[in-house]
Each structure stands twice: as C-alpha cells, then as structure tokens.
Write a structure and sequence with these properties.
500 residues, 5 strands
Length: 500
C-alpha cells in the first residue's frame, strides 16, 4: 500500500532585502519627495492678504494682544497663530522664516504619515499612500504659505493615528488621553476638523454594541470629550464673537453646484486649474478618486482604516461645506491623510485584479499632479508690493495724502512692506471694524460714495489696485490722475483731489 506524501504548505514570499530596506526607510523617501517638489524661490514671494494678517500678529508684545487680534480678524482658531508668534521670537518675522515653519509642519506630517502606514499597511499599500501624500498638489500648494494648513495636516495625521489606537483599545486610558489631546489641538487649529471628529463620534457608536463593555466604554468616551471641552473652553467666548461677525466678514463665493463637484475631487489634487490644464486636472483627479473607491476591494483591515479615515469624514465634511456655502478646496485638507491611505489601499487591491489599470491610474494621478504644480507657479514679479510701497514712502505727504486699497483687506500687506512716515489709510485693518461695525459689503468692496467720503479732506489719494489674488471691480474716481505704476497685476494710482 502506497502512502501519498503531502507536500508542505507553500512558504509565503518574503520581500527582498532591498525592498525591505525601502519600506523601512519609507518616511525618509516621503520626506525627500516632498522636499524635491517644493518651489523654494516662492519662500520670498510677496505676501497675500491672509499671510499678511498672519505676519502682523507677530508684532504684538503679549499673547493676550495676539489672541484679541485673531478674534477680530479670523474665522479660525488660534493655535497656529500662537505657534507663529513663538517661532518669530526666535527666528524672526520675515516671509521666509514664517513660511519655513509651514514647511516644517508639512515635513512632520509626511514623516508621521509614512511611519504610521509603514507599520499598519502592507508594503505596497504603505508606499503608495506615503508617496501620494508627499506629492499631493493639495499639500504642496500650501507648503510655503504662512497659514495653518500644513499644521492642520500634521495634527490630522496625529488625530487619525490616535483614533485608530483608541478604536483598537477603547478602554485604554493612555489611548483615550492621547486621542483627546490630539483632537483638542486639531479643533483649536481648524474648525473644519469638526467633520473628522464627528465621524469619529459616529464610528465610536459601533464600540458600544456589547452590553458587557458598554458602561466602561461610555465612561471612557465621556472622559475624552470632557478633556476636549476643557481645552476648548477658554476660546469659547472668542468663538462666539467670531460666529457673531461671521455673516459680515465672510461671503458665499460659490459659482454653483459645479464648484462642489470640483471640490469633491480635490482632496488630493487641490484647486482646479483653468484653461487647457483643466483636462489634466480632471484626469488626475478622476484617477485618484477611482483609486480611493477601489479601497472597498482591499483587505478587510486596510479597508476598515480607509473607511474610518476617509469615507465617513468625507461625508460629514461635504455636508458641512454645503451647509456653510464654502467652496475653497483648502478645507478638504482635513481628509488629505485619509485620501492618501485610501489611494494606497485601492492601488494594491486593483493591482491584484487588474495590474494594468492600477498602474495606469497611479501614473495619471502622479503625472497629472506634477504637471498642475507647474501650472500653479505664479507669474507675477516678486517684490511688487515692496517696490510700489517704497514709491509711496518716497513721495507721499503725510499731511495731505491718503492711501486707499482695492480690495480694502489688502491694507495689512501695505503695512508690512511700507517703511515711510505714518500715513492716513482707508481700508480694512480690522475685519470686524470695517465690515461688521462700519457696514461695508465684503464682496462689493468700496462703493463710490464710500470712497469719496473716505477721501474727503485730502489733497491727493494713492490707490492700490490688487488683482493678484482677487477679481474685484475698480471704483472710478472723479479726480485727475497724475501718476500710474504697475507691477504685474498690482497697480498704484495717484490722483489729485478736486471737487467732483
């Protein structure tokens, strides 16, 4: 009688030493890719409006004065501005210094994200997730901006990681404390983090199904929210004030449902590109969106992470932006880490079924992202604000001249670059004073009667007309123009005031 010898089970393939080394050093590769894509000359470009407000906060001698200025001029929590204020005490308040802080936050986000996916996902999933996030135009477009977007990404990564730990160990006091502190920090950096935190709240309901553990987990979840509330409580009066003035200092810039369509596709690709670049943007955005959808085909564990980090937060975020009538793609930045994770999981899932499709989609996403980065480079000359401000400083008469700004919110840009004698100015130094207290309309900027009233009593008026970042209608003043200077899309007019 012959006995059939059973073959031993196949040994799963081990990654090669080179591949293992690549995955082990994934945070380094992600960081190097991010740094390779940064447009370093843009570190010293002219400030735009929101950046000028950020840098103006560094001039306050006390933290209290800083927080009061933020309350009056931002629809944003204060943590980022506090970090800028502290940073400027050591490294100065130049454009390069403050933008370097944003790049530092972005680097931290990439390192944290890559290290997390390296430990939690399969090598292929992790590599695509980390590198897609490092190259994402949405992240790169804010890497050198003196605003809190890269800090938001960093804290989003920390919050996602902390929640995944809490989800796996819901009764761990350490996991509860870590998540509570990371969630509080994120909430005090971006109000749009509410979408992510609301998704976490909904997901946490699934942890209460077992009666035997329900009471303990409810107590732990209550402790988490108590800590978050305690951290946010000191800012609550300022939040109430920001909500009070919000209708006057914000506007609905939506052009219709199409804007929300583009926004939904922008969680990796960022702002839509005009003209011929629209085709490239759409192809890359559709490829990324398809990879994210394919995460539903992935391994159960990886698909669960994608669901918790992207699917539910994206749904709550889109509901939030529709209710608030905001269409700026930058608000999608709180789901950027989840989008990258889902793209990595989706790529691996598709590669096991349709390798050619997986690689085609990844090539479209990465290639299109690199191309639109080229399209996004600003074409206006650097130093425009400095040169035109110097002309005002050299020729203006403080006794008889007035400087007025179109749009009015550009006043703090001029204040940053101007180094001459003190001049009377007409603009929005404080948003709440100009738009809420004085009643100016945000989208209309100056009306002719408002401009004439502001100019009254002055012999000459200098007019800054800025079309670098805004398309606002000019007001035709009924005075004799005696000077005109132009630097790209920034213009300076000088009028001699005579009775109309």
């Amino acid at each position: 009688m012959h006995h059939k010898t059973l073959a031993p089970p196949p040994i799963p393939p081990h990654p090669s030493a080179a591949r293992a080394a690549i995955i082990r050093l994934l945070p380094l590769w992600g960081l190097l890719l991010m740094l390779a894509l940064v447009s370093y000359p843009q570190l010293s470009r002219d400030l735009w409006t929101d950046e000028a407000y950020t840098l103006s906060y560094t001039s306050h001698p006390t933290l209290g004065a800083l927080l009061d200025d933020v309350r009056k001029n931002e629809e944003t929590p204060p943590i980022y501005f506090v970090s800028v204020w502290l940073w400027s005490r050591v490294f100065g308040d130049s454009e390069v210094s403050i933008r370097a802080l944003s790049m530092l936050y972005g680097a931290g986000a990439i390192l944290g994200m890559a290290e997390y996916v390296r430990r939690r996902l399969e090598p292929e999933e992790a590599a695509v997730a980390a590198l897609v996030m490092a190259a994402a135009p949405l992240l790169q477009s804010y890497m050198l901006e003196a605003r809190g977007y890269t800090m938001t990404v960093l804290l989003t990564v920390a919050c996602v990681v902390a929640f995944e730990r809490l989800y796996a160990q819901p009764e761990s006091r350490r996991a509860q404390l870590t998540y509570a502190l990371s969630a509080a920090a994120l909430l005090l950096t971006s109000y749009f983090s509410v979408a992510l935190l609301a998704a976490h709240w909904l997901i946490s309901l699934s942890l209460l199904r077992a009666p035997s553990t329900r009471r303990g987990r409810l107590a732990g979840w209550a402790l988490v929210h108590l800590i978050i509330a305690a951290c946010a409580l000191p800012w609550l009066p300022s939040l109430r004030y920001q909500m009070l003035v919000a209708p006057a200092v914000t506007a609905n810039w939506s052009g219709g449902p199409r804007d929300y369509y583009f926004m939904a596709f922008g969680s990796l690709m960022g702002n839509v590109r005009p003209g011929a670049w629209l085709v490239v943007w759409l192809a890359a955005a559709a490829a990324g969106f398809t990879l994210m959808l394919a995460a539903a085909l992935g391994r159960r564990a990886a698909g669960g992470i994608a669901l918790r980090a992207l699917a539910l937060p994206a749904a709550t975020l889109m509901l939030m932006v529709v209710m608030l009538h905001v269409v700026a793609t930058r608000y999608m930045i709180v789901i950027l880490p989840g989008s990258a994770i889902a793209a990595g999981v989706g790529f691996a899932a598709l590669r096991g079924r349709r390798p050619w499709l997986a690689w085609t989609l990844l090539a479209l996403l990465v290639g299109g992202g690199l191309l639109v980065r080229v399209a996004a480079e600003p074409s206006d000359p650097m130093g425009a604000w400095g040169r035109l401000s110097d002309r005002v400083a050299a020729e203006a008469d403080p006794a008889d001249d007035l400087v007025i700004f179109y749009p009015p919110w550009d006043q703090r840009i001029f204040e940053y670059y101007y180094s001459g004698p003190e001049l009377p100015m007409a603009g929005a130094h404080h948003y709440d004073d100009f738009y809420y207290s004085q009643g100016h309309a945000l989208r209309q900027t100056w009306t002719l009667p408002e401009a004439l009233a502001a100019i009254a009593g002055h012999r000459r008026v200098w007019v800054f007309y800025d079309q670098l970042h805004h398309q606002v209608p000019p007001v035709r003043l009924p005075y004799r123009q005696i000077g005109h200077w132009q630097e790209g899309k920034l213009e300076l007019f000088l009028y001699e005031v005579t009775p109309p």
